[in-house]
């Protein structure tokens, strides 16, 4: 791996690694960070040097743009280590492309592939001991960009910081979840920012999710904000429905994130001969299928959990349980196993999705 | 002014004031900050000490919540100095209440009136030399709250920082602006966060505003995201339409901010015998009124400019100019003069809106 020559690049190593103090078996998701981070500043219309340096706090003005006007976008991806201690990324250029789409919509600058992908690889090489092998182990990667210009004028920032931080993760089996279909609140507007990974989308979801949790449901299935009938996402994941033996998921739109997991699952399902329909699906179809006994599975799809099974949903104060499906018959499990197998290099990557650092 | 006894409170004065170096006549809005700021941290379910200390940078973790999940809300208000060097605030408790409404919707903690209003007054007492008297001079006040918890788990922060920073402002006559009616993009969803002052709302507006500006319009008139026909806000202001001699403004809703300027203008207009209709107004009504020569004025209302006159609007690639209205006949000017007169203590405040520090 080498950075393109035109990108200036510096590495300052941490004096001492923290790795010895980490209890990798019991690490809480997103709470511990590796020894290094990548930082790059945008100023006067251009990105500067890529700095890889010890992870740690930074100094910011209280007037800086992101605190007031919310220019902040991020990505979420994972690195895995195979049996030969080689570190692998899963479709990282998809995240890079999506990052730039988010940037565009949030009036932030694009970042080049070299700084994003090659910069990440350089960072991972330095912190590769933090990627642990064995099933369920991964290193969560969080690239993000924030508006850093000082001053409280409501307009786009002229200065930005791009940063990548890394956090060791363990996939634990969190159990199936109960969800509530959104009847009043929503996460995205037509012509809004729902298809981007901007920070504001998440802050807006917390309150309705809290209300759902107080009512006994772990997540919300988000619906379109106009009719509250179209089933669009589940929590911070894309969502799939299995009716009969057909897998249905909404088409991506301005309101729905174009998930890397979602499109990978669609490709895997199709390669296994599972019929996939990418189409808008409304609550009534779900209720009808449930009444006929045809609604077999619902699951969320996203980088953090890969596939998250749902055991039932609430709608208009009524709870609808899904049938028990044996693991061997569950699309959720079949697809999860296949996807994680590819990601973790246990099975052949016929899709050419993985790349080493 | 004194703080309630149960709020712990510390003041650390700046060693030297920066005030001598400020060119108050030419200061750019929101770019210069006073000597002090107010900072208060929320932790373990409670707000701590109110610290008033020198304005300056702070140290934050790159993993902190606001950079990733966007929990950030703010307020905007102004202080004025009268001829007797007394400093006045305009309806500050309305901002405090709205701040807490924003907090609720963004799953952030409420803050008490003592920390917000009395804290602000204590800060202003210290920096009162920064409030300059004379027409057009004011001190812009920016209270804000951000999620400061470290760690990239998509959920509400458990720690927060409340902060108030102050910036000297001069109202300059920026001229009338041309606006574009939003036909595709939108700032707010039904069931979303449009009625709050959360940072994410602003970041989402920048790109559509940039497109409007590239087409020759300074601002966007936002419409509902479902039909794109209801006229809801103008830029970051509420919006008023004068048809014949009636003033029309949309009712506040989940999509529209309950502006302090808006409601003050409604009260002033009514006290002057101007007919005000608070009702949803659609594009077609505007086009019809324009065709009949009855559309006389459009203006935005917000703390930053008080009243911002609009000279014409674009819709479906056609530009509609508004008639020239003499200042003496313009509701915009009459209302602006009355409101600024009250705010700056030049005319009697019969509404009891102003309070001293
Ligand atoms: C709102 C939302 N939808 C869907 C996803 C799934 O996207 P991906 O599969 O790329 O992680 C995410 C991120 O995980 C998300 O934040
Ligand atoms: C979106 C939006 N609408 C309207 C307003 C006007 O509110 P206020 O009059 O309280 O300043 C503001 C803030 O200035 C705003 O940000």
Structure description:
The structure is a homodimer of 357-residue chains. The first copy, chain A, is α+β, with helices and mostly antiparallel strands. The first copy, chain A, folds into two domains: 9-170, D-amino Acid Aminotransferase, Chain A, domain 1; 177-343, D-amino Acid Aminotransferase, Chain A, domain 2 (Alpha-Beta Barrel). In chain A, 23% of the residues lie in helices and 31% in strands. Chain A has seven helices and 20 strands. The first copy, chain A, has helices at residues 65-69, 92-105, 113-126, 199-214, 260-271, 283-291, 331-343; strands at 9-11, 36-43, 46-47, 50-54, 58-60, 72-74, 77-81, 87-90, 137-147, 160-170, 177-181, 219-223, 231-234, 237-243, 246-249, 275-278, 295-302, 306-315, 318-321, 354-356. In chain A, the strands form two sheets. In chain A, strands 1, 2, 3, 4, 6, 7, 8, 9, 10 and 20 form a ten-stranded mixed beta sheet that branches. A six-stranded mixed β-barrel of chain A has the order 11-12-13-14-17-18, surrounded by four helices. The longest helix of chain A has 16 residues, at 199-214. The termini of chain A are close together. The model of chain A has no long low-confidence stretch (mean pLDDT 96). Bound molecules: pyridoxal-5'-phosphate (2 copies).
